[in-house]
Amino acid sequence: MSTRDRLLSYFKEKRGEWVSGESISREISISRSAVWKHVRKLREEGYVITSAPKKGYVLQRDSHRLLPGEIREGLETGVLGQKDILYFRETDSTNSRAWDLAARGAPEGTLVVAEQQTKGRGRLGRDWFSPPGGGIYLTMILRPTLSPREAPKTTLLTAVALAEALLTLTGLEVHIKWPNDILIKRKKLAGILTEISAETDAINYMIIGLGLNVNIPSFPDNLAAKTTTILMETGKPFPRVRIVREFLERFERYYEVFNRKGFGPVLTRWKEMTHMIGGRVQVETLGRHYEGVVQDIDADGVLILKDGTGKSHRIFSGDVNLS
Ligand code: BTN
Predict the structure, then answer these.
(1) Between 264-272 and 151-170, two packed helices, what is the crossing angle to 10 degrees?
(2) Atom of ligand 1 at shortest range from CA of 190
(3) What are phi and psi of 28, to 5 degrees?
(4) Pair 96, 139: CB distance under 8 Å
(5) Is the distance from CB of 29 to CB of 67 less than 8 angstroms?
(6) Is the CB of 137 under 6 A from ligand 1?
(7) Whose Cα sits closest to atom 11 in ligand 1?
(8) Which of 91, 121, 162 to mutate to test the pocket of ligand 1 (most atoms within 8 A of CB)?
(9) Is residue 88 within 8 Å of residue 115, measured between CB atoms?
């Protein structure tokens, strides 16, 4: 453990209690000036540590940032987040960072997280609005034993884990819109971007990025009408780290179920969390437009739509508008 980590866990152990510089220096085996230097650094990371002459130091509040140590604290996963978590105050896109890491051999379970993205990417070449501090911008690296055509199932699995985590923690009525949006009252709260590197019949690695609007206070005009945040829905900011942990734990459980029992149980849960089946939709795919009623999401995660002439279409990917 680094000196920083030892000092922080000492402060956490004594949370709310004054601890003298002398006792810290004895417990951690560092000089008093090193204590001071590390306290300054922890404050820069967002920890609220008060100091007073004759009393010493007291940890008043943990950092609000999505620091790796904060994510790992009490995280009940076997793999996800238990290896490397790369943290950026600012990066172009966590998916792009993860892509580079995976190409250099980063193992399954590696995470990339950022406070802000300058080139956050959405599906279909769109941008993902990623201002500092208020959102979760998180990417996971996976190395599943799947064929490329099964990759969309993992996106649906991600949506189930995220929707359940949000429902459990906030009680908000979240719904999934095929394939990967999390909505509250038809407004978008979160999106998922899955990218794969694959051979013809095997995936080398899979990058799953999620963007979640947690404490963002407002959106630019072009997004305002169709986007929402937890802050807007509840009137209160929500600790982002709790959502990250809950999501990772649920994702890992579903991922194990998927590997052991197949996609059935995941799909069943997905269908329970959508309002789409039986609803009228318009779908834009590359070069085609469909309108009709959603019949089902089939065992491959494909959208089955019946158009006005009664003809059924299997739609593998696209952008859905609910009518
Ligand atoms: C969508 O609904 O269009 C998908 C949005 C995915 C956004 C996330 S934010 C973290 C990760 N990094 C990116 O550049 N994109 C994904």
Answers:
(1) 50
(2) 2
(3) -95, -10
(4) no
(5) no
(6) yes
(7) 209
(8) 121
(9) yes
H helix or E strand, kind and range, residue 252: helix 240-261
Cβ of 191 closer than 6 Å to ligand 1, yes or no, is yes
Instruction: Name the residue of 95, 141, 183, 195 to mutate for ligand 1: max ligand atoms within 8 A of Cβ.
Output: 95
The CB of 211 under 6 Å from ligand 1? The reply is: yes
Q: With a 6 A CB cut-off, is 122 part of the ligand 1 pocket?
A: yes
Q: How far is the CA of 44 from the centre of ligand 1 (A)?
A: 28
pTM for the full model?
0.94
From first to last of its 323 residues, the chain has per-residue pLDDT tens of 899 999 999 999 999 999 999 999 999 999 999 999 999 999 999 999 999 999 999 999 999 999 999 999 999 999 999 989 999 999 999 999 999 999 999 999 999 999 999 999 999 889 999 999 899 999 999 999 999 989 999 999 999 999 999 999 999 999 999 988 999 999 999 999 999 999 988 999 999 999 999 999 999 999 999 999 999 999 999 999 999 999 999 999 999 999 999 999 999 999 999 989 999 999 998 889 999 999 999 999 999 999 999 999 999 889 999 88
Torsion of CA 308, 310, 313, 317, to 10 degrees: 30
